[in-house]
TrEMBL record:
SMART domains: HDc (SM00471). Gene3D superfamilies: 1.20.58.1910, HD-domain/PDEase-like. Residues 21-136 form the HD/PDEase domain. Pfam families: HD. This is HD/PDEase domain-containing protein. SUPFAM superfamilies: HD-domain/PDEase-like. The lineage of its organism: Bacteria, Bacillati, Bacillota, Bacilli, Bacillales.
Length: 216
């Protein structure tokens, strides 16, 4: 039964996200699922079914993929009407998806271990080599520059400002990516993040060397 539900959910998500090129593609979702199940196994905590379902569905209502937040939520709700999942499990999955986003996650305290694990899994995919690739893919799609030394580095930038392109992909490392390692919930994710953090720092180092021509 659970296997069938997972298959149905995979099919729905593949269909919804297949064409996306902003870093929210199916392969991102698949990596988040794999990361999350790995953390769950290592930590010996959490319900793997809830974790897998929430991982698969986590980007469906994302503001960046829908005209409005409400439309995104409606998409998720109508999918749930087509599969037979007990109400309390469905509520839990929706609650995880609503609370894990970076913006929501900083204000809202995560209630369950499953939410913490899916959030860590999503954050791991925003750092390291994959994180670097996703940042430039996203920036390119938004028409944001790779880097501009005249742009100031700021602690936080609003979604509106992102949309207006008032940042650069390199700035995004300081605004978000380099901070993620200290926001992780589980020891398993923290361990994985160490190498990914080093990778980003050495990338930035080399980037500035080349930008300034110091390696010539
Ligand atoms: P997630 O779905 O992983 O929680 P987001 O929806 O915020 O994260 O972003 C999706 C991907 O796009 C991430 O890899 C993130 O780092 C990247 N991204 C988001 N905003 C920017 C930005 N302003 N510049 C560059 N990359 C960005
Ligand atoms: Ni995601």
């Amino acid at each position: 039964m659970k296997d069938l539900l997972i298959k149905q959910t995979e099919k729905f998500v593949r269909n919804e996200l297949g064409e996306d090129a902003t870093g929210h593609d199916w392969y991102h979702v698949d990596r988040v699922r794999r990361n999350a199940l790995h953390i769950c196994k290592e930590e010996r905590f959490g319900d793997p079914f809830v974790i897998e379902m929430a991982s698969l569905l986590h980007d469906i209502p994302d503001e960046k993929l829908n005209k409005t937040v409400e439309l995104g939520r409606a998409k998720l709700d109508s999918f749930f009407k087509t599969i037979s999942v007990p109400d309390e499990v469905k509520e839990h999955i929706i609650q995880i998806i609503d609370t894990i986003s970076y913006k929501g996650g900083r204000k809202t305290k995560l209630k369950t271990i499953e939410a913490k694990i899916v959030q860590d899994a999503d954050r791991l995919d925003a750092i390291g080599a994959i994180g670097i690739a996703r940042a430039f893919a996203y920036g390119g799609k938004k028409g944001q520059p790779i880097f501009d030394p005249a742009v100031q580095v700021r602690e936080e930038i609003s979604l509106e400002e992102y949309r207006k392109g008032k940042s650069t992909s390199i700035h995004h490392f300081y605004e978000k990516l380099l901070k993620l390692k200290d926001l992780l919930n589980t020891e398993t994710a923290k361990k994985i993040a160490e190498k990914r953090q080093e990778m980003m720092l050495s990338f930035l180092d080399q980037f500035y060397q080349e930008w300034d021509g110091h390696d010539l």
